[in-house]
Structures
1.
Amino acid sequence: MAKLKILTDGDTALRLKSRPVSVVNDRIRTLLDDMTETMRSADGCGLAAPQVGVLRRVVVMETEPGTVLELINPVIVERKGEQHEIEGCLSVPGRQGYTHRPAYVKVEALDRNGDPITLEGEGLRARCFCHEIDHLDGILYIDHAEMVDEK
Ligand code: NI
């Protein structure tokens, strides 16, 4: 595994739309492994491929320590309720803000073998699904957050 460089706000790659993965091969599995190592070493709970300069629809998450979720071509297929909580991003270091997110989301994706999976989340996990999938469309949470660190 290799630790990758995390791009920060201002880098144009963070603002581009990522392409779907057509074939889940060893290159994608290596990307997943490298992204997990990068996320963990940065103490993050989620990382999307464009944050490491790879414009493909790939996400890793670890909202419950020890449980890594790997998502390829993730799509939110259901949303319920609302939450207003604080969020941060490894690509926007040192800042935090409140966002409006669904309280619950259901996500469909492919796993590292290319098999379809369905995942659900509430609370932090729901926020993280939304935040990471937004990255795949070039959206940063600061675009719609009420920032708390600017006085
Ligand atoms: Ni982020």
2.
Amino acid sequence: MADKKAQLIIEGAAPVELPILTGTVGPDVIDVRSLTATGRFTFDPGFMSTASCESKITYIDGDNGILLHRGYPIEQLAEKSDYLETCYLLLNGELPTAEQKAQFVSTVKNHTMVHEQLKTFFNGFRRDAHPMAVMCGVVGALSAFYHDSLDINNPQHREISAIRLVAKMPTLAAMVYKYSMGQPMMYPRNDLSYAENFLHMMFNTPCEIKPISPVLAKAMDRIFILHADHEQNASTSTVRLAGSSGANPFACIAAGIAALWGPAHGGANEAVLTMLDEIGDVSNIDKFIAKAKDKNDPFKLMGFGHRVYKNRDPRATVMKQTCDEVLKELGIQNDPQLELAMRLEEIALTDPYFIERSLYPNVDFYSGIILKAIGIPTSMFTVIFALARTVGWISHWKEMLSSPYKIGRPRQLYTGYESRDITKLEDRK
Ligand code: CMC
């Protein structure tokens, strides 16, 4: 795919010819791999202009608000598919036939329980620990339990690990919540759908099993679909980088969870609610909008803006519709925090500062509101993002391992001291 070439002119040196690679859709990329031979590197902190890998899983056109998984638009997947089908698609490249789907769902359900011994890990954590801290620990700890699927060079092991992770994440996420509440942990119920089972493990107790609302289960499933993958974001790149050293899949996913935790990434859904609390009342909005615009103030409107989407976040459009459905089902109309959120949305969509910088509400703006309405505590929001994103992470990890790859090892522009000699302690000033 490299019939075009770019020429790099470096003063005082011979021109360098660099191949231009063309993908199926999206911009061409200049292949700079041969540059090392010239003794030079490229400099691109934040990877604003750098493709770190080739991938067939997800395509994003940020200018036009397009998100495709294996070619299928996210809007169609949210409308016509379900989370486990989307998992199959991401992992295997095609939507399943009815038979393949039944087999996949049954296999996932066979793996929903976690080793009983894993429960004892929880006791080592304080009950008020942040759920993401506990998730980093217990997901990493899975590698100490499933030795039979840790050979990363064995495709069958990779497959079993992928299924285990998709199957066990809801169980672990609900265990984290129950532990924080001091309630007994609930075993998974394999007669329920993936989303119903998660809500069952979260909200039911051994002494009271209530039926799960189909509207809330559908909303949960949509949240899972909309967070399933998003190409080479910070956490997925972390998983790929960890995986490139040969680390086992459970350790790689734990690394992804850690990267997701930050408020600029998956932590944004939690940060949205914290921000709404901080703003407190509609009458304070103008003050906070002014803070968001002030270059000397670190405050940012959480849930607005995106590194890639510079027009609209297609996930946010679907999420907003689900948000309306959930609020209607729960009869929430006059919630002051919701009123505040809607007013912020209105301002951001009309204020020149936000328009000029293309700062639209992103997926986390609405998912935070939905999760709160369902009754999920704010500190669990990013855990739910991690649960849903696990399939994306593991699909990228599998894709990387299925073709020749190199350990990820970025270079740097060194601006520290040149070589110097140590002076004796007594002579140092
Ligand atoms: N509030 C106020 N100003 C903002 C915001 C915001 N949320 N986001 C960006 N800006 C301004 C920024 O100050 C800069 O202004 P100027 O050009 O005058 O210097 C301009 O917009 C461009 O911002 P940037 O920081 O260069 O953009 P980025 O692509 O590096 O950052 C972002 C993207 C998502 C980290 C950022 O928009 C942000 O921090 N948003 C809030 C956190 C958030 O909601 N994150 C969730 C993203 S969706 C979930 C996911 O996929 O992980």
